[in-house]
Amino acid sequence: MSARPLFLMPACADVSEPRRLETKAVFEDGTFEGYASLFDAEDMGRDVVMRGAFAESLRAKGAAGIKMLFQHDPAEPIGVWEEIREDAKGLYVRGRLMAAVAKAREVLSLMRVGALDGLSIGFKAQRTQRDARNGVRRILKLDLWEISVVTFPMLPQARVSAVKMSPFRESVPTERAFERWLTQEAGLTRSEARALMRDGLGGLKALRSGQVLAGEDAAIAARLRRATASLHAAI
User: Fold this and answer.
1) Residues 166, 168: Cα–Cα separation, whole Å
2) Of 109, 111, 150, 119, the residue nearest 25 (C-alpha)
3) Taking the CB of residue 23, how many other CB atoms lie within 10 A of it?
4) Which segments of 27-162 are extended strands (E)?
5) Is 106 helix (H, G, I), strand (E, B) or coil?
6) What is the pLDDT of residues 12-51, one digit of tens each?
7) In this structure, are residues 118 and 13 in contact, taking their beta carbons and an 8 Å threshold?
8) What is the pLDDT of residues 120-131, one digit of tens each?
């Protein structure tokens, strides 16, 4: 079964390419990562995306220029893409669902339990090759418009592999786990995390006066604001 965009597209535009979302992790704050397209894999629409097909479009637009929608509906933006890039496997994506948007909260809940695991790219094919023997269309270059979270995929090989929950969801984390969270998720350095855990803000101030050069106070303050916001979201 093939999903179709719910908005009107130019006659020369391609319909979307639904695939199962291979998600490496779904975080408590709505961040997730995975693959929106796999290279050299034939989908149920007989399309095969080739390596390099996204390169020019991504250089021109960047992740910020690609919309994150639900079921290709332009009235249902649910988040933002923070990273989109090609690697040897396919189109790697990392995005964040917006907790303030009701539909995004629903999508996140369904993704965590594996009930919603599809991604679909909306694009316009710019250079293709058709295999006369089997009818397969190889897409060599395309203009990527949007990537949607969808219900029905066309590429069964790409699928959800894991869901990562917040370390605060079920129980109080160990000191080691909390330090790892402060550095990996909240953006603090290891020294800052240990100072904050050991002596609170007083310890962080002492670290700042002893090690931080003039002009870096604002950077540490920004990291603390991010840590506070991330901790609030996790709890």
Assistant:
1) 5
2) 111
3) 23
4) 31-38, 47-49, 67-70, 73-86, 90-97, 118-130, 137-150
5) helix
6) 345 555 555 555 556 667 788 888 899 998 887 889 999 9
7) no
8) 888 999 999 999
